[in-house]
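User: Can you help me understand a structure? I only have the sequence.
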Amino acid sequence: MKAMTSERISGCFLSLAIAFTLTGCQGVNNASPSPSSAVSVSLNQTSVSIAVSTTTQFTATVQNTTNTAVTWSVDGVAGGNTSVGTISATGLYTAPAQAGTHTVTATSVADTTKSAKASVAVGAISLTPASATVAPGGTQQFTATIQGFSNAAINWSVNKVTGGNSTVGTISSSGLYTAPAQTGTYTIGATSAADSSVTASATVTVSAISLLPATATVIAGATQQFTATMPGVSNSAITWSASGGTISANGLYTAPSQAGSYTVTATSAADPSITANATVTVFVFTISPRSAIVAPSASQQFTATIQGLTNTGVAWSVDGVAGGNATTGTISATGLYTAPATLGSHTVAATSSADSTFSVSAAITVANLAQTAVLTYHNDDARDGAYVEEVTLTPSNVNSTKFGKLFSYSVDGQIYAQPLYLPQISIAGGTHDVVYVETQNNSVYAFDATGTQTTPFWHVNFGPPVTKDNEYGVFVVGILSTPVIDATTNTIYMVAEESGYSNPFFLHALDAATGAEKFGGPINITGSVSGTEGGSSSHTITLETSCIQRTGLALDPVTNAIYIGFGSCTHGWLLAYDKTNLSPSAQATAVFNATPNDNGGGGLWSSGGAPAIDDTTGHVYLMTGVDFGDDISTVNNSITDGYNDAFLELDPANLSVLSFFMPDDNPTLADNDADLGSGGNILMPVSSSYPSETIGGGKDGNIFVVDRDNMGGYSYSPQVNNVIQTLQTGSGSNPDDNIFSTPVYWNGFLYYHCNNDVLRAFNWNPSNAAPLSPASVGTVVYPTTHGATASLSANGTTNGIIWDIDNSAYDGSNPSQSGPSVLHAYDATNVATELYNSSQVGSRDTAGAASKFTVPTIAGGRVFVPTSTELDVYGLLP
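Assistant: Let's start by predicting it. Here is the structure, written out as tokens:
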């Protein structure tokens, strides 16, 4: 038995004394004394709810003992721990980070069997999302989940305002937040209904996309930059979309081709519900035609059309000058353009009256044209050989009954050049239609095209011609090439080879009305370039006197340059001269040598054909030839020596090569003297829907359809021709003796008449991968003299007739003793139908002695046939 403490002894004595006193008052009580009172522990709170990581103070009261100290534990762990919460020696409980229910115990130090317990519910609210971005007036659902409490009710607030309000936004009892109209950042509060100390918060950003411009007007196919910003948002990334047209990741909008109203939408990458829209008005603004070629002082109607705008008015200008002027040409308020008297390129523009920032333009070239005139080889700068203003001659009246030889003009030598024609010019005191011819004896004749005057209006001779050797012996070389007439000044330019000079080449400019020299002419033609000529060191290469000037002359309307080509010598040359300056001190404005680093080749002759010119750009297109033994040197398929047997595109400013094509069998062509440049090339009509094409072929009979803006270069390994199409033509009797001509193009047909072959027509459909296909085939074979170069007459797209000359009777050793030329006419829509030939009616229509490579000219109801002895004129019989 334990000894009593002094306190308990004292208590007992006190109790006994009290009992004794009471007994004394009442008498003796024989009952047993009551037991002592036990130690007790109590807590200030026995059930409490708190939030995770927060604190609550416990206070323990110990009774029946003077030692009131207690020890604390949580879930039986003295002092607790981070999992159940901790409690200090003074009873401060700190809840753990996790929700749960725990027991706090206070145990008496005086009597460890005595303790008091309290239940602690540790609660937490999980609020999602923790942050959100909402558009003004938009909604966002928040979800709050209570852990640790049995009462799951939540009280919601915005910026501590229960339920929120219109200024900060409102939130429902289910947590659906509705944003206010104002942008800003707000705090969503979720509070436990069981314990207001248990809360959670989320940040909501009310933001809008600022999209600029809000409206835009854009021309079809043009672009408009849009900018979108989201102030106050960390993730300000934007995705773009458009109801029509396209828009890039950085907001660059490209309008569609159709007029209309379209919507550009910017969407927040952070919250796809946040969008902004802009309205785009797309209008179609077109000008027609997009390009045009007109004669000096002629007119061209332009039309501007606006779709999609209320105001469809336009203002017209030329080269930036409102209404134009005498130099640029003028344009009326209705779009009628009147060209100046000089050649050149200009830009016609139509500007929107609704918005002057929008305009469309068209290119117009004042070219060397004159109504019903024939001013150049094969009729125009495209070299298509078509005279489409013929209203008199038709397939129904070109026959031996109604059509025949009308008269002839005797000349002093062979006429190699194509006759040229000027209608209604002032000459010899009157107004006449005039045909011009040139001979190998250096004579130029201006004849009355109607035969009314039987003697020349004028005749000029430049003196004795040069004589040179060919395979037939010595021949006369005076004027071989076709001249060119400048319609703006009525000047005829030609090259004569004149004996008695160390340099025999002279460029003449004659007045078409009088034959008088103009512009300080004639000028002696010279040119030089640097090259190695196949050697090791560079030196100056000079135009050789052995050359022959056979290619037709050309006049570039963009540069006003006269182009002169040379061949039949070591190299091929093309020189440019200013048409207005033929003074003795004048020099070539540009010089091109086809093979400056080769021993030779690249000659220009094309059977008399002339370089083709794009009248809108001035670019020059031609084909070069080759001689026996000429070759090419390549490194990695790149030409190192020059351009033998090549299609070339030349820059008119300096005659540098812009693009070229050489057949893959180039060395074989050289070994067999199979010139590509025995023929000439033409430029086909241009369309925006297919590549611009040039077509030509040479001795091996391959017709090449070439993209003239990207000709294809040269590929020997692997052997491939990088062209649009290659098509074989010719008789096949001699694989290296086929094409010696420039083809004719008209109304979807391309025409060739090869050596020892019949006339052939091909369909041309440029939208096809292979645009050429056979159309019709003639029946008449020209057995010798390299076939024929045809010409065509038509009234627009009707009454097409193909004309060419059979020179099979040509005697190269004695041209004047040749048999007659034979003029042929074929139905252009079916060349199997021959309409007429000059041998059908005996001697009535017999032409003069045959020549080589002659080209008939059709104009004003007449056909002009050059021969070795005379100019023959055919037409409807009286």
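Now, to help you interpret it: The helical segments are 6-26, 666-671. The chain has two helices and 79 strands. Let me know which part you'd like to focus on.
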